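Give me the fold.
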Amino acid sequence: MDLRQYRYFCAVVEEQSVTRAAERLRMAQPALTQQIRRMEEELSVRLIERAGRGIRITPSGNRLYERAVSLLQFEQETRMELSDIEAGRTGILRIGVNTLSASRLVDWIEQMKRRHPGIILQVHQGESSALIERLKERSLDAALVRLPIDAQGVSIEWMEEEPFHQVWHPDHPTADLIIPSQEGLGVFQTLSQRLGVVSQETCSDVLTLIGLVRKGKAVTVLPESTLRELDTAGLHQTYLSGAASTTAFVWLTETGPTTLTKQFIEIMQETAK
């Protein structure tokens, strides 16, 4: 049986008449009668019985009617939900964010929720390389990553370049260089080489890293947007001329951007103007 037959049967039950049901459905009465008989044959039960000039719904027919109403309601709700998802009115947007690429994310999320209050946003933080792998595993819809990375198989829509600063405690300018990351953030290795030191020490938690700098246990390099979000009072900073990193918004090329991803891109592009 299909949903069309369930609609036919519900009309018969609700009208308590095959004739009136056929008029409501705008179909010939013999055709409707034939559909009901097919349902009875397929289910091997009687659904409707003659009762004088009218009809009587059997106990099996009443139970089928209850189930049919639920099925038709479920089908209608599903259609509406899918339509809302396709239009970007509802759904889930799963965004991956590199630890050092989220300085403007709060503003973007705020605007996204204001425009599309019915959506669910899930933000997952991690290394750029790990986020790319999650894209390929289809556990993320899109990600904010820092280049350079191995971006084979992903598409890039939005990019922003920003400078880097070296940060140190004024009493400990020669402390060990500790960089935020090695994996997936080759830019930091490049910067450390420019400073004449190849760092083997990393600390992916920026607050902990700044804490080490504040105690004179580390010198580090951080992007400008990250420094704006941190309390660096009492620390010295030096702009690294010619040193910059690019933040990119990426998704899996094979699947393309979802409707919600496209809407998020629009918000990012608007703020960049």
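The chain has a mean pLDDT of 85.
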